[in-house]
User: Fold this.
Amino acid sequence: MTRLFGGGCPCCEQRGLPRSGESVGSRRGFFAAAVGVAAAVVAPPALAQGAIQAGGAPRVLRVRRQVVGDSFSGVYWRDGRYDRDALRQLDMVFRDLSAAELTPMDPRLFDVMSTVARTLDSDETYEVVSGYRTPETNARNAGRSRRVSTVSLHMSGMAADCRLPGRQGLGLARVASELQLGGVGLYTRDGFVHLDCGPVRRW
Ligand SMILES: [Zn+2]
Assistant:
């Protein structure tokens, strides 16, 4: 039986990815620059068409930040547009807690998380273990653990480590992986799943 997860790649590993001309981190800065949020509001390139609701129904996300308890629950996309106010609230929930900094998160990450929860038919609230990481925070984590990549999509606001209550990590990771919306990493020992809106891959 093919082993789907646990291949030993570190979190957010980008080794082997094509170096496209468009840097994923190019517009990310410190604190939510209004200009960055505005850029995010423009419809993003489609992820896996079809998996993410095309048009129609509003997109909902329920997230709660572990430790501090900040949360968001509601519609963040409707009528073909991301809701700026919702994105701002989500940026806050996904902020770097240790550095007390936030960044405009890539809203496609919210599409990934929303689609995974919907596919699982879950109304539960995601527990977000880690969202945005400043380069300093990431370097510190990488220094502590070899499982944290030094080039992390967390630094680009494109990744989250999370849990979905009532769902095993393996089940969550498997469904997320089948949807092929981005990167999926299963961290059984740590009890969370890494989801991102980068290239499709799993570990
Ligand atoms: Zn991660």
